[in-house]
């Protein structure tokens, strides 16, 4: 990488946390996008220094756009949008539609993500096969991580504002939810 690094963002998706880096050569017109250290887009000799660069991030090909705006003279502002929303708005919305737990199993760090709308479970970037069942107080989604029995319990909070509470249980022990 050169010294034209203009922006760096960390984006938490179901398949992991991705690092997006953007180089902008304002004298050469060069634009380079890296995702997790891998170059995924390069444009040389762009005469228009402002504009947008759109690309995909992660296993679900989430749409990302870097906006390049002139703020004064030769100063530029770089903003990242995910699925058409500012990164801040996207992450706020994401916390409503997913639950994330970070735990250590057998010496390995595991990042478990539940997509509340589909009930898909991801662990360290892999979509996990699950079995769902209805129980007296809600639902249980069962899966295994290595030799460990895991379950996401979904029960009503009894309050409309709080909605459904999702809890991860591993080998009978409740795991605290992570805030990303």
Helices and strands in order:
Elements: E1 5-13, E2 16-25, E3 30-35, E4 38-43, E5 51-57, E6 62-72, E7 75-82, E8 85-86, H1 87-97, E9 98-105, E10 108-115, E11 120-123, E12 126-128, E13 131-135, E14 138-145, E15 148-156, E16 164-170, E17 173-175
Antiparallel strand pairs: 1-2, 2-3, 3-4, 5-6, 6-7, 7-8, 9-10, 10-11, 11-12, 13-14, 14-15, 15-16, 16-17
The topology string of helices and strands comes to EEEEEEEEHEEEEEEEEE
Question: How many beta-strand runs?
Answer: 17
Strand percentage: over 45%
Q: In terms of structural class, how would the helical and strand content be classed? A: mainly beta
End-to-end C-alpha gap: 28 Å
Overview of this structure, please?
This protein has 1 helix and 17 strands. It starts with a strand and ends in a 5-residue tail after the last strand. It is mainly beta and 180 residues long. The strands form 4 sheets. It has a 5-stranded antiparallel beta sheet, with no helix packed on it. Strands 1-2-3-4 form a 4-stranded antiparallel beta sheet, with no helix packed on it. 6% of the residues lie in helices and 63% in strands. The protein has one helix at residues 87-97; strands spanning 5-13, 16-25, 30-35, 38-43, 51-57, 62-72, 75-82, 85-86, 98-105, 108-115, 120-123, 126-128, 131-135, 138-145, 148-156, 164-170, 173-175.
């Amino acid at each position: 990488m050169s010294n034209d690094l203009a922006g760096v963002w960390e984006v938490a998706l179901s398949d992991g946390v991705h690092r997006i880096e953007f180089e902008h050569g304002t004298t050469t017109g060069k634009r380079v996008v890296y995702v997790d250290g891998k170059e995924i887009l390069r444009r040389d000799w762009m005469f228009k220094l402002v504009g947008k660069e759109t690309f995909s991030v992660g296993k679900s090909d989430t749409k990302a756009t870097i906006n390049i705006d002139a703020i004064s003279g030769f100063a530029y502002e770089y903003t990242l949008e995910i699925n058409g929303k500012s990164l801040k708005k996207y992450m706020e919305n994401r916390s409503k539609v997913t639950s994330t737990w970070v735990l250590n199993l057998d010496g390995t760090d595991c990042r478990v993500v539940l997509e509340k709308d589909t009930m898909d479970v991801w662990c360290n970037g892999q979509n996990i096969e699950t079995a769902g069942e209805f129980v007296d107080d809600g639902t249980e989604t069962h899966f295994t991580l290595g030799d460990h029995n895991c379950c996401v319990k979904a029960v009503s909070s009894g309050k409309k504002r709080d909605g459904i509470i999702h809890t991860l249980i591993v080998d009978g022990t409740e795991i605290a939810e992570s805030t990303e």
